[in-house]
Amino acid sequence: MLPSRRLHDQTKFAEAISRTALPAARCSRWVLVCAAVCGLLLGLPGAALAQTQNPPAQVPATAKPAETKTVEGPGMDYAIGPQDLLGIVFLEAAELSRDVRVAPDGTISLPYLAERVQLSGLSLNQAEELLKRKYQEAGILNQPNISITLKELVSKPVTVMGAVRNPGVFQLGATQSLMRVITQAGGFTDEAGTTVQVVRAGTSSQDQVLRVRIEDLRMGLLNANIPIYGGDTVNALPAGAVYVVGAVNRPGRHTLRGDAEQMTLLRLVALAEDTKRTARLDSTVILRKDASGATKEIPVNLKKILERKAPDVAVQANDVVFVPDSLGKRAAARGGEAAVQVGMMALLRAIFLF
Q1: Strands 233-238 and 192-200
Q2: What's the CA gap between 159 and 170, in Å, rounded?
Q3: What's the pTM?
Q4: CA–CA distances in Å: residue 108 to residues 82, 111, 224
Q5: Predicted confidence (pLDDT) per residue in 217-259, tens digit
Q6: Eight-state DSSP code of residue 264
Q7: Domains and CATH numbers, the chain
Q8: From 154's CA, which of 18, 224, 253, 293 has a CA 20 to 30 Å away?
């Protein structure tokens, strides 16, 4: 009986402890939850304060690689030159797009084209059209859309204009003399005047203008054969012209030559192939505009000049020389011609009647 009682007492004791431990365990769980919540509430301000006082170190940004920028300034009419860097973009075939450096001979090489393409001296628009035509003719692209931009300007263009045979834009590999540049443009024309004007970009806002006499340049004077740099504009100023109308055999416009001799009235009459028989030489008039634009009449006795009784008269550019016609002389000339015709008819009639 004793062991069974003891076993029964132990069972009772274990059930009592289990009933007591269950509420304690539940209470301890709530205590732990409350402690965790309080810890979070108390730790947030501290953590925020710590973050404010000690901000995280910023990671330095990675440096971007340098990019080639398009040159600003030259427009689409800029003439491409050697060593220029061109950006060629194929919109339909991006794999063909690339930056190309113009070779010293002015050509470039592009994918799938058997021959090099000459671009020197062309504008950007002209180069685009040329490349489109090349790819179409080669059967590579049907309707290519090509865009060319100037990314780096290395060439030295010089513009030659005025009274030269082949005006245009020329690329200089190095500094050249004025006479050499004029020679590249084909030389002077017959309408060249007496002066070559060189416009050069100055250090200030105003351009520098240099003037050289053509006669000094032709004579080989060293101070006249000035150096020409990239960006200069060479203008061979054309000579003026004079006009002769009226009773002359060849009326019209006559160019003033750019030689040392000045155009005079006698030389102008020679260019007009002399005057007519009916001309009123003593009533010749020179029409000339003054600085204000008003036209004034200068009477000249051409008859005395031809008879060497009066000095020759110089004419200026844009002068108009008018040699009037005599109505009386014209009527007399017509009457004489009529009399001659009547006499010839009478002579012929007499011969046939005889």
Answers
A1: antiparallel
A2: 6
A3: 0.48
A4: 10, 10, 38
A5: 989 898 999 999 888 999 999 888 899 999 999 999 888 765 5
A6: B
A7: 85-152 (3.30.1950.10), 157-238 (3.10.560.10), 241-328 (3.10.560.10)
A8: 224
